[in-house]
Amino acid sequence: MGRIGTLLAALTAMIALAGPASAQGHAAPMEPSAVPLPVQPQRVVSMNLCTDQLAMMLAAPGQLLSVSHLAADPRGSAMAEDAKAYRINRGLAEEIWLMQPDLVIAGSFSTRATVDMLRRLGVRVVILRPAYGLDDIPDRLREMGTALGRMDAAEAAVTDFNTRLTALRDEVARRPRAALYYANGYTSGDKTLAGEIIATAGFTNIAAEAGLPSGGHLPLEVLAMAQPEAVITGRPYPGASRSEEVLDHPAVQALRNTSVGAVLTDRDWICGTPHVLRAIDDMRNTRRRMEAE
Amino acid sequence: MKPLMLILVPLIVVLCLSSLVIGPAGVGPVESLRALVAGDEGPLTLVMREIRLPRMILAVAIGASLGLAGAAMQGYLRNPLAEPGLIGVSGSAALGAVLSIQTGLSAAFALALPFSALAGAVIAVLLLLALAGPRGGSLTLILAGIAISAMAGALTSLVLNLSPNPFAANEIVFWMMGSLTDRSMLHVWLALPIMVVGWALLLPLARPLEALTLGEDAAASMGINLVRLRWQVVLGTACVVGAGTAVAGAIGFIGLIVPHVLRPLVGARPGPLLITSALGGAAMLLAADIAVRVVLPGRDLKLGVLTALVGAPFFLHLVWRTGRTPV
After folding, report:
1. Cα–Cα dist B120/A229, whole Å
2. Rg (CA), chain A
3. Measured between beta carbons, which residues in chain B are less than 8 angstroms from residue A224?
4. What is the C-alpha separation between A165 and A158, in angstroms, rounded?
5. Nearest to A217 among B168, B174, B299 (CB)
6. How does residue B134 score in pLDDT terms, banded at 50, 70 and 90?
7. Is A75 near chain B, with CB under 8 Å?
8. How do A125-128 and A230-234 pair as beta strands?
9. What is the number of helices (H) and of strands (E) in chain B?
């Protein structure tokens, strides 16, 4: 016990000493907006659900080595089938280091400690912020293209995305009022990806009139009083949770009886990738069904 | 005792009405109450009947249950520190509830939820009595309670972390702190019948508990069946705490504070303290539930946060006093 204690103390001291020094050594900016890389990285590991999907879309064959386990989970990933072709990581520094990557791509919500550890070990890490709206998606595609050294593929994807997005915008005579309502009573406002998806599909989001322009907790009774024509909820995960129970509350059920019924968001809504076009298309069809009735 | 009732009952009525008219929807009180009673099937009626009414009923029922259970346990164990939350009964009930939700039992059979919480509570009370004994000192009781709480809390966290549902792990705080947000009439029907059984078991204990103040032998000579008394306390406490915890999580400290505040007012007699504590508990939980809505509207502040902020200093004061004057 005493020896282990001494060892631990020594280790802690070493880490404490080494930490700031090596952190300074790697303080160079890692943002992808820096100068494009002359060479394409050949062993790329992505550790975030959204960067996984962008990387799978843009990487050259053989360039992408591993994606996160979430990318292979069809509940949250729009590209779960594609992800089977790659090695799966769980976002732990140790396993990623053993893959000997020359580039790691992380999201800005990836574990701070893991990213710092990889950088201390000398691995190049690029961090992509999540897309908070449709406008961010071309930026993210370009950032990913730059990181992978695949700028042409990124530009092609951006052009394709913009064309398809324009085609999805309808002239809407009447915008039905819709509520986005997730587990724990959270809602998304207009300034979010989900908010822009339903706005593009021709809905008015009730979050703004409830005083939540950027989303937040929408009290159940405010939702009930607002009487939206459509309640768009998340698809429940397997295994029960009290957080999702509110989606089956009698007050929410009553709203479903008076509007189009249950409308569910799914994996196409989660990440800022061109897959959101499918979500917009689905919602547009829902709106057209409502108008036809 | 009579004048105390004359204060507590109107207080509860006022708090019930306040609980019904306070909410984020921001509708006038008269209009809200008319929608509740008249019922024009509009959205306001839905809000009043499906959201605010169940919340008010649960606050009254669970508050009364916790006050009553605290008074009964303190009377039976003759120990001022006995409280269902502190000694792990609520925590074990929460574990039972979580197990039934996560195994899918409660989805298959709705009553499984309160019954498994009840089973958790029974196990905890029996363990406590076995460890501390009916005449166990404060220290033994509290230590046994801490051990049971810690174990139940750890197992609850484990079960929720093992769940495939990403939201489940975040619910640890609900089960440990309790909340009445967004409950429905379904929860009322699940919990209320079992709580009524618990009240029926605990409220008639006034005379046996009074007799017990003279000591077990004296009580037995007065014709009190000690075995029956013991089981009535165990099952009654488990019923009220289990059913309440199953739908609202573990709300602590009410069973500690309420009997203590009211005890001097009933002449320190455990008998009258039972019904008085039930009323006081209902008033306190109603007030706490109104406070969480007024202090941080729309943020779902957990009830247990508030009751612990009031209760923990109180508990420290009791520990300090108990340590100085040997019971």
Report:
1. 43
2. 22
3. 25, 43, 46-47, 50-51
4. 10
5. B299
6. low
7. no
8. unpaired
9. 16, 0
ipTM exceeds 0.85, yes or no = no
Cβ count within 10 A of residue A132: 14
For chain B, say whether A225 makes contact (Cβ under 8 Å): yes
Would you call B25 and A251 a contact, using CB atoms and an 8 Å cutoff? no
Backbone angles phi, psi at B25, to 5 degrees: -65, -20
Cβ <8 Å between A221 and B52: yes
**Helix B226-248 and helix B112-132: axis angle, to 10°?**
130
Interface size between A and B, measured as CB pairs under 8 A: 93
pLDDT in the model for residue B87 = 86
pLDDT tens figures, A192-237: 999 999 999 999 999 988 888 888 889 898 999 998 989 998 888 8
Over B83-115, what HEC string results? CCCCCCHHHHHHHHHHHHHHCCHHHHCCCHHHH
The correct CATH number of A177-292 out of 3.40.720.10, 3.40.50.1980, 3.20.20.70, 1.10.287.130 is 3.40.50.1980
- The nearest CA of chain A is from the CA of B135 a distance in Å of 40
Domains and CATH numbers, chain B: 1-49 (no CATH), 56-324 (1.10.3470.10)
- Give counts: helices (H), strands (E), chain A: 12, 11
CB within 8 Å: A249 and B50:
yes
CA–CA separation, A33 vs B313, rounded Å? 54
Instruction: Please give the mean pLDDT across all residues of chain A.
Output: 84
Q: A140: distance to nearest CA of chain B, Å?
A: 26
Which residues in chain A are closer than 8 Å to B170, comparing Cβ atoms? 184, 243
Residues of chain A found within 8 Å of residue B32, distances taken between Cβ atoms: none
φ, ψ for residue A126 (rounded to 5)? -110, 130
8 Å CB contact of B25 and A238: no
Domain chopping of chain A, boundaries: 31-163, 177-292
Distance CA A10, CA A121 (A): 20
Could you tell me if A254 lies within 8 Å of chain B, comparing CB atoms? yes
Residue of B nearest to A249 (CA): B184
Residue A220 in contact with partner chain B when CB distance is under 8 A: yes
Q: Are the beta carbons of A219 and B106 separated by less than 8 Å? A: no
pLDDT at B157 over 90: yes
Q: List the single range of A126-130, A159-163, A193-197, B311-315 with lowest mean pLDDT.
A: B311-315
Please give the class, per CATH, of domain A31-163.
alpha beta
State whether residue A216 sits within 8 Å of chain B by CB: yes
Name the least confident of A100-109, A263-272, B121-130: A263-272
Query: Which residues of B are less than 8 Å from A233 in CB distance?
Result: none
> Quick one: which H or E segment has residue A145?
helix A136-148
Least confident range of A177-191, B26-40, B220-234: B26-40
**Which pTM value belongs to this model?**
0.82
Do A239 and B186 count as a contact with CB atoms less than 8 A apart? no
Q: Which residue has the tokens 């009410």?
A: B254
